[in-house]
Design goal:
It contains five helices and no strands. It has helices at residues 6-10, 19-46, 52-59, 62-90, 95-124.
Length: 128
């Protein structure tokens, strides 16, 4: 059954053959983002205060640095998938390739910078 049939459309087999999978990834990453942000908020509320030294020391532990890195990875992946759909739906000329390239450059660049900052604090004890 191809993408041109009713059954193909119901199964999510659009022109790219990955519509349903992309939709589920968006929902899963959204749910994981909610869980991670709840963890972050609860963790911050439990700190004695939110001054620089306290938060900096808190970030040095592996049970904090790893979830923070997961927040960065998951959030940027969710962001990229969402904007990719918008670009694919509304850009129908050559600019589509440019916008998708810029989206990838931004998300991977900003995500790498955020991960570097977390890892630098966690592994060396200094800020980026």
């Amino acid at each position: 059954m191809g993408s041109g049939t009713e059954l193909g459309r119901v199964r999510g087999l659009g022109s790219a053959k990955h519509g349903a999978g992309h939709w589920w990834q968006q929902r899963v990453t959204a749910f994981v983002n909610i869980a991670l942000i709840v963890w972050l908020l609860v963790s911050l509320v439990r700190l004695p205060n939110l001054d620089y030294g306290t938060v900096h020391s808190w970030m040095q532990g592996p049970f904090v640095a790893v979830p923070l890195a997961l927040i960065v990875l998951n959030t940027f992946w969710h962001f990229k998938m969402g904007l990719q759909v918008v670009i694919e739906d509304y850009q129908h000329n050559e600019s589509r390739i440019v916008f998708l390239g810029l989206l990838n450059l931004f998300t991977f660049g900003a995500g790498a910078l955020a991960l570097f900052s977390i890892l630098k604090v966690a592994l060396t004890g200094t800020t980026a």
